[in-house]
């Protein structure tokens, strides 16, 4: 039995991806779903949201096996094997496998083993390395009997992200309402389809190899990469109506998503607010963001003691409703019962 892996990805940065995962992780945990968060962005911004700098520095300096995602896979760069992940218990039902700036050094190993995995023999080691992130994710989930694995990755199409997406069951795409997010969407769809096809060839190659019978307990991810929808970051509004620049780009998203991600015929004149693939429009919450960061908690857990009074208190309740609704939509699409 494996836990579903949900990855939030756009190869265009600055779309609020890390904050989104942070808040959804807290919301799922509050709904009594056990969550494991895996920070696979070498910048480790999600780790910094959950842990203070002193704790992160201690983890990075000690370099204990399994203490970060990199320390789990690092032995594979030598003659060792995957180390058991050591999870940080953030709160009830909420666990983190910290990120690591050293993860970038694993890119070379992943790049080198990609062609080797299509050889005629000696396939176990390349397939073990290419699937190592999935192996770690499932080991972590099994340790705490997790209901869902949430994954953050950086905004690029490199070898690390390819191996993360191979390990992914479901993909959600955060977007900004701008030209760059639309262009990223156009790149992302064909890339995901290409990676999925290439991984299937590697699975077929492994399944027909003579080595498979020698490793009966070796499981591999299926590389489903099923896109379940997108989330749009809200821009400035005036008199409750989007500014023209925002509206210009946001209304192009439904067609671009269908054509390039789903490989379907666009539905002309379908507005973003009517698009069933739009999971939510993520609000600004403006001054609540720094307040939440100061107290190291999600927006919807801020209290009057934290300074959330008056209109801020109303915004806190709105945020709770918004993220509860979003968690429900996502859970339904990935088969998790709330």
Strand content: 5-15%
Radius of gyration, taken over Cα atoms and rounded to an integer in Å: 20 Å
> What percent of the residues sit in helical stretches (DSSP H or I)?
40-55%
Number of domains: 1
Q: Helices and strands in order, then pairings?
A:
Layout lengths: L4 E4 L8 H14 L4 E6 L4 H6 L2 H10 L6 H5 L14 E4 L2 E4 L9 H10 L7 H7 L1 H13 L3 E6 L5 H8 L3 E6 L3 H29 L18 E8 L3 E2 L2 E2 L1 H7 L2 H9 L16 E5 L5 H8 L15 H24 L4
Describe the structure.
This protein has 338 residues and is of the alpha/beta class. The protein has one domain (5-287): P-loop containing nucleotide triphosphate hydrolases (Rossmann fold), CATH 3.40.50. Helix content is 44%, strand content 14%. It has 13 helices and ten strands. It has helices at residues 17-30, 45-50, 53-62, 69-73, 107-116, 124-130, 132-144, 159-166, 179-207, 244-250, 253-261, 288-295, 311-334; strands spanning 5-8, 35-40, 88-91, 94-97, 148-153, 170-175, 226-233, 237-238, 241-242, 278-282. Strands 3-4-2-5-1-6-7-10 form an eight-stranded mixed β-sheet, sandwiched between helices. Strands 8-9 form a two-stranded antiparallel sheet. A hairpin with a 2-residue loop joins strand 3 (88-91) and strand 4. The protein is globular and about 65 Å long. Residues 237-241 have low confidence and may be disordered.
Label this structure with key terms.
338 residues; alpha/beta; Rossmann fold; two-stranded antiparallel sheet; 44% helix
Outline of the structure:
By secondary structure, the protein is of the alpha/beta class.
